[in-house]
Amino acid sequence: MLNWFKTKTASLESQQRNAVLRVIGDRGSGKTAYMASLARWPNADPTSPVQTVIPVGEAGEELISKAQNILEQGLQLEPTDLTANTADINDYTLRITLKANIGSQLVNLNISSKDYSGEFFSDLLYQAGNPQLQEYLEDCSLATGIMFLADGSSRGKDGEYANGLDKFLTLLDRTDLELDKRRIAFVLTKCEQPELWINRHRPGFLAEARFPQVHRKLQAWQQIGSGSVEYFTTSAFGMLGNNFPEPNVQLLKRDRGGVTAVIKEPKRWRPFGLVAPIYWLCTGDRHKELDKG
Ligand SMILES: Nc1nc2c(ncn2[C@@H]2O[C@H](COP(=O)(O)OP(=O)(O)OP(=O)(O)O)[C@@H](O)[C@H]2O)c(=O)[nH]1
Ligand SMILES: [Mg+2]
């Protein structure tokens, strides 16, 4: 009986994947929109491998209300405040459940994730001695997975991002995690933009073509055995229509830093590519179906 119980619990536990993530990236790279869209999970595609996304606790609820009261009203999110200390930054917890298929059980991805202000990223470049920044870095170095978001249309910032990343990785590598390896997902956001959309199924190619210096840094970091890197494409806003899809986006501005935009038709809002990087960060495996969007 006891043996049966042990096996049963083990097999249930094996379907629970937990990860502590940190989402980093420049101002306006789409970090908050990514998290809020994930929590809201609007107009779910019935054929998606994702069954549900459930926010846990107060911070999670707050994400949903951001999605409903801001994004879904066709409005823009506020830039995230640079809060005084890491303890004050919202720690969002989400439970993502993937459907059970023939031969596979239900999988729960439990993630907790902090959404930093993009200011953090420029401080890395220009204020390395800042104590608050040190605190952020220590916090990031405890995470199992780092999600590094970049607006796919901000290719002009490749050099800046590569320099920031260089500093980030050096500081990260100072902390030995009791993990085999750290994982970094480099996620290109806003990939409903036509020039990105056409190559959305070739994330590695897009990352290298648009951010060659960042790509080189990440590959080198992986090669020296510090951890593993994978590339992803996503859009928090998504497309409209199936046969001749167009971005579900009303562009407000486009410059070297990327695009500023709101959702064009909130009733038909369906993001893509949000869960694929999380699945990889949690398991170390790419999920073919999730990769399709
Ligand atoms: N086209 C498009 N625009 C997006 C997408 N996600 C976010 N945006 C827009 O990009 C801008 C910045 O989005 P945020 O989510 O606030 O960016 P952030 O990384 O949290 O920025 P900070 O909090 O300032 O660090 C806003 O104008 C968003 O509406 C997307 O998937 N597609
Ligand atoms: Mg933000």
Q: What are the SSEs and their pairings?
A:
Layout: H1 2-13, E1 16-25, H2 31-40, E2 50-56, H3 57-69, E3 91-98, E4 107-115, H4 119-126, H5 131-141, E5 145-151, H6 158-173, E6 182-189, H7 194-197, H8 203-210, H9 212-223, E7 227-233, E8 239-240, E9 246-247, E10 249-255, E11 258-263, H10 276-283, H11 288-291
Parallel strand pairs: 1-4, 1-5, 5-6, 6-7
Antiparallel strand pairs: 2-3, 3-4, 8-9, 10-11
Bound molecules: guanosine-5'-triphosphate and magnesium ion.
Magnesium ion is lined by residues 31-32, 79-80, 115.
Query: What number of structural domains do the residues give?
Result: 1
The value of Rg in angstroms is 19 Å
Strand content: 15-25%
Poorly predicted residue ranges = 4-14
Largest sheet: 7 strands, mixed
Number of helices: 11
Average predicted confidence as pLDDT: 87
Give the beta-strand count.
11
The CATH architecture classification is 3-Layer(aba) Sandwich
Distance between the termini: 43 Å
Helix and strand composition category: alpha/beta
Order of helices and strands: HEHEHEEHHEHEHHHEEEEEHH
Adjacency order of strands in the biggest sheet: 2-3-4-1-5-6-7
CATH names the topology as Rossmann fold
**CATH homologous superfamily name?**
P-loop containing nucleotide triphosphate hydrolases
Helix content: 25-40%
Q: Name the bound molecules.
A: guanosine-5'-triphosphate, magnesium ion
CATH class: Alpha Beta
Shape: globular
